[in-house]
Structures are given as C-alpha cells and as structure tokens.
Specification:
The chain has about 230 residues and is an alpha/beta fold. About 20% of the residues lie in helices and about 35% in strands. The strands form three sheets. A seven-stranded mixed β-sheet has the order 1-2-3-4-5-6-7, covered by helices on one side. A hairpin with a 5-residue loop joins strand 14 and strand 15. The longest helix has 13 residues. The protein is globular and about 45 Å long.
Length: about 230
C-alpha cells in the first residue's frame, strides 16, 4: 500500500487567508486501485472509492484519517466495479455514512458478489445499499470545497467524475488514465461512449487540470491530449 498526498492551493477573500484542498491517494487491493481522501482546512473529508480489501488496508485508511484529525462526511463511488467498493461496508459503518452513487450504477453494485466469484475472490463484505443517488450537473459540497458532478460513462454504465475548479483537479475514476483509458469490455462498457465522455466532459476542463485516476499515477488533461494514443484525433 502506498500513500501520496497532493497539495492544491486556493486563495480565499474571507480572512484574506489561504485555503488548502488536499488529495490523499491510497493504492489498495489486488487490482491496485486508488482510493482518495479529499479534505480541506475545515477538517471535513470525502472518501472516494474505498478499495481497502484487507484489515491492514482498512486500518491504514482510518489511521491516516485519525492522524490528520479529519471528519469523514461523505462516502462516494465514482462507479461500482468490485475493486472500488471493497471498503464500502467498513467506511459506512465506521464513520456512520450513507453510500452515494449514480443511480445507473446500482446494477453494477448489486453484481459485485457474482463478479468476485468469477475472479476466484472470497465473497466480499456486502456493500450497503445507496442512501443517496448523485446527479450529473449538480454540486458535491463539504467543508469549504465545492465540486461539479460530471457524467462520464463508457467504462461503466453511469460513472461520474468530480471536478474542483478552485483547486484545478478532477477525481475521474477509471475514465482516463495516464496514457490510457478505462477498459470497455466489461458489462455496460462502450468504447465510443467513453471517448465521448472524455471529449465532452473532461477535455473542456482545461489543459492544466490534474486528473486523479482510479489506477496508476496522476496526469493532466493537456498531457493526455498530447500523449495518449487512444485519444488521437478527438
């Protein structure tokens, strides 16, 4: 397991002070999935895609939250493939949080036990049912942070991404990777839909926007425009 913390600075007129939005990345489980904790100077945080699979991984996540005196206020899945939801039950119960997803991902979430069996994995802890469905075009808010909810299907039927314009980053799930894109051969995936999502939802955010992906290293929109062979000509 590795942890990396990104410092994204913004400036606020209130108090003439500096607000810092931070993104902590944890790489968990046999699929090397990236779990993100996004937090700011309020101490509130959102946990995106908790992939913690073992007890050690669960403790590493909670130890980080405790050490930084954070208060988790939302639990969100960008999409519901098995590697992104392994820790849903743990996080929901430990921090008394309801799960939030896009409604179109519900069949994917419900299929996780069967998919685990196909991979030969032990039956996972059952994810709680969603308590709230997130809608594209609305805002995700917590503490002093506001993020736009973008509809980015193609890797999964109803994947959503979260753009923080003040701090210039997007939590993109498995939509876009460094010099790659999400696979589209899984149920509900579609290559043309995924490319359209990247073109219409992510590219307009701007070349300098940092992309925090569900696997691998971070990247930027501009780097992917120039170097991602999957996106040539779009």
């Amino acid at each position: 397991m590795t942890i990396k913390v990104y410092f994204c600075e913004t400036f606020a007129d209130k108090f003439n002070g500096k607000i810092m939005t931070l993104v902590a990345k944890f790489t968990f489980n046999p699929f090397q999935e990236n779990t993100y904790v996004v937090y700011d100077d309020s101490g509130e945080c959102v946990i995106f895609d908790p992939g913690c699979y073992t007890q050690e991984e669960k403790e590493q996540l909670s130890t980080f939250i405790t050490a930084n005196k954070l208060t988790p206020v939302r639990l969100i899945n960008t999409h519901c493939h098995l590697d992104h939801v392994f820790g849903n039950k743990y996080v929901a119960e430990k921090y008394k949080l309801g799960l939030e997803i896009h409604e179109g991902e519900l069949p994917v979430l419900e299929a996780v036990p069967q998919i685990c069996a196909l991979y030969g994995l032990p039956k996972p802890e059952p994810s709680p049912a969603p308590s709230n469905f997130l809608k594209e075009g609305t805002k995700l808010t917590f503490g002093n942070t506001e993020m736009d909810i973008l509809f980015t299907p193609g890797h999964s039927p109803a994947s959503i991404s979260f753009f923080c314009s003040d701090s210039n980053f997007v939590i993109a799930g498995d939509v876009l990777f460094r010099q790659s894109i999400g696979r589209t051969d899984l149920p509900g995936g579609d290559f043309k839909t995924l490319i359209q999502s990247i073109k219409t939802q992510l590219f307009p955010l701007g070349d300098e926007v940092r992309v925090y992906s569900g696997h691998g290293e971070e990247t930027t929109i501009g780097f992917e425009k120039a170097n991602n062979s999957f996106l040539n000509g779009i």
